[in-house]
Amino acid sequence: MTARLLTALGLLIATAFVGGCVLVGEIAMSPQKGRVGAPPAGLTAEAVTVPVPAREPLAGWYVDAPPGAPAVVLVHGYTDTRRQMIGRAEFLAEAGYAVLLFDLPAHGESRGERVTFGLHERHAVSAAVDYVRRRRPMTRVGVLGVSLGAASAAMAGRHLEADALVLDEAFATFEATVRARARWILGPLSPPAEAALVAQIRPRLGVPADSIRPAAALAESDQPTFVIGGTADRRATPDQSQALFDAAPGPKELWMVEGAKHEDLLRREPEAYPARVLAFFDAHLRPG
After folding, report:
1. 218 Cβ contact partners less than 8 Å away, ≥ 6 residues apart
2. What's the whole-model pTM score?
3. Which one of 38, 66, 147, 261 has the largest count of C-beta atoms within 10 Å of its C-beta?
4. CA angle, 213 as apex, 278 and 100 as ends, to 5°?
5. Does domain 33-173+212-285 have CATH number 3.40.190.10?
6. What is the pLDDT of residues 83-94, one digit of tens each?
């Protein structure tokens, strides 16, 4: 094979690689919209619209509780909808909490042009907490987020008017989760893909990738924080859970679920998960 052919082949491979990374980036940020449908019969929920200042409103369900009861805002993960949080809403409602479930921007029935990995989703989480506070003045409000929902809650930082925070399988930085996912899929071939994917954040979102740092934002807040992760999670890796825990300046707890991957930890631990989450929220949201 001549040098010219080798050069042409190299350029072809490089072009295909870059094009593939651009396509992956586009797909990853594309809206994940779809019809959510009605809440399950066992959850007495009201369909609500949550306003977000200067942004599109959010579609959600609100489960009421007696006056004086605390409330929890539930935030689902990437590519999912509020339906992912039904099981959590059920055990919280059964324990006497008011609950708000909503679709993140560009997910489910909420409008939005693209997924931004917590950069804009953080405003939705703050707006959801504010909505609950308007409906239930003087009520203590907690937030429980899963994966992207947890990262978005952490990204809200000091602007999140919550009294307690549960971060379930959150990533600590965007770069760390891209690196973890690329190495999981590509192994030793991952570094060029990591660089190509991270480099797309600035032109697509207008900020550098290192602006998406949930752990750094969490360090600016002082809510009691419960970090939950899996010891076998290859997306929100154990070191990222540890980094979030280390960053939280207020009262905090860490639970690493042995052998758990990036999965529904409520389904994996159907007794321990509700018990530990309720114990944390009871300690920080119910009047002493």
Report:
1. 154, 157, 167, 225, 244, 247, 248
2. 0.91
3. 147
4. 35
5. no
6. 999 999 999 999
